[in-house]
């Protein structure tokens, strides 16, 4: 099933064209689908949801993160049609990123924990101003890297900080984490979409994340694909393809 590549996929391909080599993590030799990054036997492409969103997303990524098959920013860009992705650099600022932040159609929110920010900048809600659409800036990196990006990116200083108040622990199991209260990027984005009134997109992304996790871990454990799980059932209403395709 063919899909237009999202901004993260284009960014990955651009880095490869520039001579940047993908990281060779465990299992890197296994043939992966170039569109969904999952091992081919457990390809996720037929389960990519299609939903309308008023919100946009902008992913600020590190060189390593854009190549990691376990990255969940890719899932967000699959779901949210208006998606953007940039590689962060301390010394160089992408002019396209600055143009996006200054685009009058958007109200950018930098998503970051409020406890690390001056209180006057922090909000826990999204202003649904009909003249501007929410644009969520997500620092798609490890927690250590995200704090560095936050501290050393002065062009973010004028943006309001959206500090989320999640009521559940992270479900992310693809990498080790010592902090279960730290949500992965896809979980964060789903909460943002819900706050912005994009409830269908939030539900689709939540289910898509769970299905991706099951396919990814199933391939890693050499288990057969199981499309009869609750997560697959939750994702089904957002899929524009036949049941015959999904059952294959």
TrEMBL record:
Pfam family, one: DTW
SMART domains: DTW
Record has tRNA processing as a keyword: yes
Transmembrane regions listed in the UniProt entry: none
Class of enzymatic activity (EC top level): transferase
Keyword terms of this UniProt record: S-adenosyl-L-methionine, Transferase, tRNA processing
Known EC number: 2.5.1.25
Gene Ontology terms, MF aspect: tRNA-uridine aminocarboxypropyltransferase activity
Name of the protein described by the UniProt record: tRNA-uridine aminocarboxypropyltransferase
